[in-house]
Amino acid sequence: MQNLHPSLFIEINNLNYIFLVGTNDENNNFKINYKLAIPLQGVEKNRIIDLEKAYNCLKENIYKIEQNLNLTFKEVTLILENFNPIFVNLSGFKNLNGSQILRENITYILNILKSSLIEEEKNKDVLHMFNSQFILDKKKIDNLPIGLFGDFYSHELSFTLINSNVLKNLKNIFDKCNLKIKKILLKSFVKGAYLSNNNLDTETFFQVEINPNTSKIFYFENNSLKFEQNFNFGFDIIIKDISKITSLKNDTVNNILCNTQFEDEILETSLVEKELFKNEIYRKIKKKLIYEIAKARIEEVVSIILFNNINFNHFKKTSKVLFFEFNSELKIDCIKNLYKTAFSQKDSLEIKFQEIFSIENTLKTANKISNFGWKKEVIPVAESKKSLIVRFFDAIFG
Q1: How far, in Å, are 23, 81, 366, 369, 371 from residue 28 at the CA level?
Q2: What is the largest CA-CA distance in the chain?
């Protein structure tokens, strides 16, 4: 069976450019042909600081891939994990007085929402727009209720916005690389779509991701991305606390955490085993001390991410499901379990451990969204000469 032309995807995250190439055959079976990770150049602290450096790095590696695979790309799908997106949720209303909901009614609401958004966010561009909620006479409707009768209709749209200059810089870079940007996807959206597709009847949830140096929370409601928040600390803060208080090196702390069984009830006299000290003079250190340091810091961190977070407190009434992703090359089960315990202390959250989100999962999900769209997303492409409203109805009505 003849394969279709391979597709190019580039993820820009906090550390790397990740170049990915995949092929979708005529039966829609997707295969990864190539992947390459290169340290970021020209991008720092969630913004492009050196356009030329970023362009040269991207152009050089795209050319290498094209030479390696003996082909030429014409377009690229971008997956962004930084650049500080903002999230806006707007609702519009229409009094129907018992009449039928017409397309014109939806147009009226959307024009109001569009005008309001443009007025308030003049230096932003829409990255994603979701049909997040339809309410007819105080009842939630699963699909766009064209043709139904009612007295009062409410329509909510959820927008993901990006700074206009960021979008212009990205477009400029890839124009110079002779590539059209087919689609720009926020990685949280890709992860949310993957979790929804792989967890039946779970369309509304939180996801918390803990990395070595960063943490993140995002919220998916009715298969729509509602908010994302990033934190400049990860589980490294726990390692540093233990190291500071015990005067142990970070490597030794990691070794102890990976090879010690910690439980809630730890004997006061239980000491860290001598063989766990790596290139350090052995000292008598109680396991309970290390456990309590880790527990105290994790409870503090979880309070910042969740319980003292105004965004979480705003949305928690809608969902108690929380997917927890702990990204570490080390097997630190005790730290992961302490996080789970801290998450569960309040609000009766349903914690679901999530496997590390792989490049393969990223690419396959992004490919489906890029080619076939997403059930709740309104804007089908990143760049279009059509107006926002025209694109909305193109996406809904075809």
Answers
A1: 9, 26, 14, 13, 10
A2: 81
- How much of the chain exceeds pLDDT 70, in percent? 93
Q: How far apart are CA 220 and CA 232, in angstroms?
A: 22
Report how far residue 212's alpha carbon sits from residue 325's, in angstroms, rounded to the nearest whole number: 12
Q: Are the beta carbons of 380 and 372 closer than 8 angstroms?
A: no
3-class SS of residue 331: coil
Residue 379 has pLDDT above 90, yes or no: no
CB distance 290 to 242 below 8 Å? yes
Distance between CA atoms of residues 336 and 394, nearest Å: 45
Question: pLDDT by residue (tens digit) across 306-341?
Answer: 999 999 998 988 888 999 999 888 788 888 889 988
User: pLDDT tens digits, residue range 156-177?
Assistant: 999 999 999 999 999 999 999 9
* 63, 66, 68, 70 alpha-carbon torsion, rounded to 10°: -140
Mean pLDDT throughout 355-369? Answer: 90
User: CA-CA distance, 163 to 297, in Å (whole number)?
Assistant: 34
Pairing of strands 215-221, 224-231: antiparallel
Distance (Å) of CA 149 to CA 92, 96, 111, 133: 17, 8, 22, 17
**Angle of the 250-258 helix axis to the 287-302 helix axis, nearest 10:** 100
| Residue owning tokens 């993140």 | 216
- Write the DSSP string, 57-83: HHHHHHHHHHHHHT----EEEEEES-S
> Whole-angstrom Cα distance, residue 216 to residue 230?
4
Q: What is the pLDDT of residue 331?
A: 82
- What are the residues whose beta carbons fall under 8 Å from the beta carbon of 189, sequence distance 6 or more? 128, 160, 225, 369, 374
More reliable by pLDDT, 397 or 12:
12
